Amino acid sequence: MAIRLLATDLDGTLLGHDGLVSQGNLRALQIAQKAGLTVMFVTGRPPRWLPGVIEQTGFTGYIVSANGGLIVDAGRREIVRTFPMLTSVAIEAVDRMLTVIPGLEFGVERSQVGMRLADPRQHTVPSLGSESSPNGEFVMTPGYRSSGPVDHEIPVGPIHELLQGDRAVKIVARPPEGDPRSADELLAIIEAAIGGLITATHSNIHDVLIEFSAAGVSKGSTLAILATELGYAPEEVAAVGDMPNDMPMLQWVGNPFVVANAHDSLLREFGNVLPRNDEDAVGQLLIELAGAL
Description:
293 residues, Hypothetical Protein, Haloacid Dehalogenase-like Hydrolase, Chain: A, domain 2, alpha/beta, five-stranded antiparallel β-sheet, 20% strand
């Protein structure tokens, strides 16, 4: 059965280490589009970190964002579906985390259907590593440490208040400063504590940040819903990823690929290894799949 849809992660996969799409990958996206190959972006990035990628690529398809927490129609620049956490469940999960790792600080991505992405011509669109909240969608606890500059207008408050309204599509947690444990170690501790109340993962090999979505919600679950509704069987779908948050997506598709710079857990699990992200790995695959159609 021919592969008709490619789902690709962004950071560490389609994007280079500079956070941009290379000229080679841009040409490959154009070739794939002309050949009739459907491409979806499937990312841990929240909507506020998508406009720059959309601008650079001219992408108009669907984006599974926030580790499956929502779906963005890039052509309309609008959120068209969300899979939020119930406030009561999220609060219980957070309380359990704080019992085993006191001092965790949190950021919360809150969203709703119909919310539009920031227009770069009208707003300062946050780049990866900076924190801004063009639509008021990102909120954080007072001690949350960003990996970059923080907009002074970001709402700050206690985590229980930030989770109100059943709108949280993604929570991120950072350990206390000086905690020597890796993201893998902290993830194992937290998963044991929360017992499946919400889904936990991580996605950055260079940072220690644990990410959460509603129970059962992942890149894989939301990709499965969207692809199935659009008429694609798993055997017709390929996916490329590099980090643990990509595991559910790669397990659902019939044709999983990982880049050579992937997390060890993915390299152990999947045999189809592409070149590194900075070597136009996704672009090479796109051209190969387009040529087979």
